[in-house]
Amino acid sequence: MLKLLASLVAASSAFAFSAYAAEIAVPVPSDPGTKYFLLNLQAQSGDTLQVETRREGKSGISHAIRLVSCSDRTFGYVYDADERSEVFPIVSPATDMSVLTDQSISWWVSAFACQKLGLTSGW
Predict the structure, then answer these.
(1) Packed helices 105-116 and 2-12: angle between N→C axes, nearest 10 degrees
(2) What angle is formed at CA 19 by the lines to CA 36 and CA 66, rounded to 5 degrees?
(3) Which site among 45, 48, 58, 100 is 20 to 30 Å from 94 CA-CA?
(4) What confidence tens digit (pLDDT) does each residue in 49-84 have?
(5) Which residues contact 45 (CB under 8 A, 6 or more apart)?
(6) Cα–Cα–Cα angle for 86, 94, 8, nearest 5°?
(7) Whole-prediction pTM value?
């Protein structure tokens, strides 16, 4: 599975489908028919990342910000909203970190983000 993710990360770095230059398509095979885009990726302390994504699917467009610990393979939602303008300012950090479920949407998003920054020790 890690080899599949590595090949998807490598392929996605060659192109991006986005309205903004900084967006990168994130492959999420567990959610067919839906597109995910990495909007912002910020390193926090240690191997913890703040990952902002946009989801485009049948139900519309939504935005999420996740806090991800690459080595622990845990994540928590900082914010989830239908409009990007609703995402900011961020009022509170993620309070509950959950273990990532293999092949879940958050697993794919987190693995993609951790691999983008070379933080793959927990994967």
Answers:
(1) 60
(2) 35
(3) 58
(4) 999 999 999 989 999 999 999 999 999 988 887 766
(5) none
(6) 80
(7) 0.76
Q: Which of 123, 114, 122, 121 is nearest to 9 (CA)?
A: 114
Query: For residues 68 and 49, is the Cβ–Cβ distance under 8 A?
Result: yes
33 CB burial (10 A radius; 0-12, 13-18, 19+): exposed
Interstrand relation of 35-43 and 48-57 (parallel, antiparallel or unpaired):
antiparallel
* The one-letter amino acid at 68: V
pLDDT for 82 equals: 76
Provide CB contacts within 8 A for 59, sequence distance 6+: none
Q: What is the dihedral angle through the alpha carbons of 64, 78, 115, 27, rounded to the nearest 10 degrees?
A: -20
Residue 97 contacts residue 69 (beta carbons within 8 Å): yes
Q: Report which residue type is found at 72.
A: D
CB 76 within 8 A of CB 94: yes
The whole-angstrom separation of Cα 66 and Cα 114 is 12
